């Protein structure tokens, strides 16, 4: 329940959105009160897709820094505002230009692609900016993950569900580069080779880890399987490999959400930041989302509140965000951020 003060703030936000022609985009992991006032709620990739086609006159991106930065690169024609520029993603920041340089040394013919989470100084070392491709090319959503294991329940997973963000972009980039033999590395941390594997550490020697999604274990997944034998188990792609292997499917938050939307109502255990299950529970009241033993809670994603969104709109109304403000989140990506480290997907 919102307090009376917050209700007043929300009403003012709605009024300013209408006056300014602004659109508010929020990640699944945001506070419920922020998601409730947003025009669109989704994962990192779907937020970028929405930004690409938005007819708004300004975009308010409620997430962490790389999301607003990617939207700003995609829409230089609009002010793109992050209500909290101190909301950073340590997973994203952990992959610096040294990772790109090491990859080049190990494989001079490598195609380097900057992923959605890439820092500005990493993008400068890359051949392609995958976040911009992901915003315009729907084919990146069409490939199931290599090695996907069918759930023991016998449920058929639709082929259109996108399970892992690594293989499909890599194959797409390899084709667009005109050479089927060249390897592609997606930074930070993920690669896609001929077999569709995604072991960033095997190619580059190091890969950042998401401290939020790495909290859960294969043993916890096994206990969930025993406790909820009829449930489908899904893991975020940033969970540990052994956790993903213990589940029926894995993917980023958009892929997990698409899976749930594509199946009849049923029971799920999703090893992902808690905000995803919270959102899906509201969207699919017929399905049951079991709470995991380890509640994955990203403090970086919970920094933005209703008052922050209102302040961003008020500053926009006052003219404090000229067109050049779209570069602001890029600069914020070079600073510090909240901890512990997390990596929203």
Query: What's the tally of helices?
Result: 16
Distance linking N and C termini = 28 Å
Strand order of the largest sheet: 2-1-3-4
Biggest β-sheet description: 4 strands, parallel
- Total beta strands: 12
Quick take:
By secondary structure, the chain is of the alpha/beta class. It folds into 3 domains: 4-87 and 303-332, 3-Layer(aba) Sandwich (Rossmann fold); 89-208, no CATH class; 210-295, Rossmann fold (3-Layer(aba) Sandwich), CATH 3.40.50.
Any overview of this molecule?
By secondary structure, the protein is α/β, with parallel strands linked by helices. It folds into 3 domains: 114 residues, Rossmann fold (3-Layer(aba) Sandwich); 120 residues, no CATH class; 86 residues, Rossmann fold. 40% of the residues lie in helices and 13% in strands. The protein is built from 16 helices and 12 strands. It has a 4-stranded parallel beta sheet, with helices on both faces. A 4-stranded mixed beta sheet has the order 6-5-7-8. α12 links the parallel β9 and β10. The chain is globular and about 50 Å long. The chain starts with a helix and ends in a 13-residue tail after the last helix.
List keywords for this structure.
345 residues; alpha/beta; Rossmann fold; 4-stranded parallel β-sheet; 40% helix; globular
Task: List the topology elements.
Elements: H1 4-20, E1 22-27, H2 32-37, E2 40-42, H3 44-53, E3 58-62, H4 65-74, E4 80-81, H5 90-94, H6 97-106, E5 111-114, H7 120-123, E6 128-129, H8 130-136, H9 167-176, E7 184-187, E8 190-192, H10 200-204, H11 218-227, E9 232-236, H12 241-246, E10 249-251, H13 253-262, E11 267-271, H14 274-283, E12 288-290, H15 306-317, H16 328-332
Parallel strand pairs: 1-2, 1-3, 3-4, 5-6, 5-7, 9-10, 9-11, 11-12
Antiparallel strand pairs: 7-8
